Amino acid sequence: MINYFNKFLMRANSLNYLSSILVVVAIVIYFSTIFYGLDFTDSFYHINEAIHPVHDQYKFSFILSSLFINFIARIFGEQVIVFRFINSLLLLIPGLITIVFLRKIISKKDILNYITILLILTTSLNTNILGYDTLTTVILTLIFFTCYSYLINKKGYKILLLSVLVIIAVFIRFPNLILIPILFALLLFEENYRDYKRSIHLKIPMLYVVLTSTITLSVFYLINNNFSEHFLAEINTSSHKPGLLLISYLKDLAKIFGFSLYFILTYKVLSFNIGRARNIKMSYFLFYLAQFFLAITVSVVYKYNFTLYYVSIAFSFVTIYLIENKFSIYGIKFKIIILFIFMLFIHPFGSNTGLLKAAFLFLLFPFLLIILSPKNARFWIGNLILICFLGITVKVISPYEDDNMWNLNAPLNIHQLYLVRTTKQRADYITDITYERQRLLGKDIDVYFYGNKSHIFNYLYPSSSLGISDFNQNLENSNFQIKIQNILKKKRNLALFLTTSYPNKIIYSSQSLLEKELMELGFEKVLKNQVLYYLKTTD
């Protein structure tokens, strides 16, 4: 397995320097991406919930994530670039942990190639958002390797450590609660497969599940006596209803199955041809060429959803590995690969983005390739190198929630956004709103923001927040109308900015439900360039 890494990236000892250079280049690329791109939503939603929570109450569903961000803000300041740098450091932890476990297996020169691949993969997955997704990736990695260590060498303290890590995972992101029953089932199997016909050993699994469940629920009830009400409110939010989540999962699962079927078929065809081809190198060349065009097509069509391609590779690898290796289901390799596939799909559980977040634990895939040493490893190594290249390409073409990277050349002259670059249109939009807000405040007019893209402005100007903690702030959502009206009625001079879209996608064609109600309350519509707000004064 290790030899294939050398054959792909190092043909002679004289190329050792090239491996070192590639690592340096990968590091530069990795950290340089934190300066480019600016979303108006996710990044600032997490920051706002951490440093300016509504009514000074953190959301129980990701309370530990908010506390961590708040801690970072108190120590290092509230600039976006600080949060991005910390986020980038955290995303390196999964790779560093795998290196610790591989340090006695692979040589130092092989480590350089391994690090390069990890850095490129991590770069492609990094959305520059410090929040529960990054922290969940880190904690799931720690849980995976704690389980991995326990499977190799059973020690009681590892069960206690596992319980602590799972509790932390739940408080980072509440849907991670699914870890409790899943790991209980895995521990139950591990403790009973040897003599399941004689008796059932429940001591270790029950210790884990009772300890973890008791502490988790106790802490939640200590934090909030109305925990059950908040729990029901969370699962019934418009964007997280179980039915909608299930549909989203099934759609992504269909894509994963489709891509995986392609990988499995091409693997079988390639394996068949290699055994009969006169020119094996040509067979691989044609295969990689086909893979390249498929991946390009997927990246262009799906863009951010390209991460499902990562998940498909991992899923097809697991399927083929289980088919080809006729080992006992009680073998250590079988347990590791089953553990990996379960952990892969923990992160998407409860997410309204379907199965996209399963891609975060793809960072463990190179580790699996080394310790499992699959047949025809060149197939998987080639795909891994190919998607590293395409992952970076997608990162450049379509940064998260922004334009092509070569269009991100406009700095933002705002302290909190220092060093971050975005498109000129987006920078001008923020500048125009900032100027108009200052002008209105100078006339003793209170200013507020509302809309799906208001999170960035609530971050920049917390005094102008309406105190609505919902991520989605739809102008047609009647649930918010009463709350907004109650706030507006208390103010004599007031301006409400409606920020519903990015400036390049703004279309003011028809009035929304909220706008109609504002007009009925005596507000005047003001539209300056792409800046829209409703104004009410007593003058």
Description:
- The protein has 539 residues and is mainly alpha-helical.
- Among the domains are: 240-399, no CATH class; 423-536, no CATH class.
- It has 22 helices and 6 strands.
- It has helices at residues 2-9, 16-32, 42-51, 63-76, 80-91, 93-102, 108-125, 132-152, 156-172, 179-192, 203-223, 227-235, 242-274, 280-302, 307-324, 332-344, 365-372, 377-397, 424-442, 455-460, 481-489, 513-520; strands spanning 410-411, 421-422, 446-450, 494-498, 524-528, 531-536.
- The strands form 2 sheets. A 4-stranded mixed sheet has the order 3-4-6-5, sandwiched between helices. It has a two-stranded antiparallel sheet with strand order 1-2.
What descriptors fit this protein?
single chain; 539 residues; mainly alpha; 22 helices; 6 strands; 61% helix; globular
Secondary-structure topology with pairs:
Blueprint (H helix, E strand, L loop, with lengths): L1 H8 L6 H17 L9 H10 L11 H14 L3 H12 L1 H10 L5 H18 L6 H21 L3 H17 L6 H14 L10 H21 L3 H9 L6 H33 L5 H23 L4 H18 L7 H13 L20 H8 L4 H21 L12 E2 L9 E2 L1 H19 L3 E5 L4 H6 L20 H9 L4 E5 L14 H8 L3 E5 L2 E6 L3
Parallel strand pairs: 3-4
Antiparallel strand pairs: 1-2, 4-6, 5-6
Helix pairs in contact: 2-7, 3-4, 7-18, 8-9, 8-16, 9-11, 10-11, 13-14, 13-15, 14-18, 15-16, 15-18
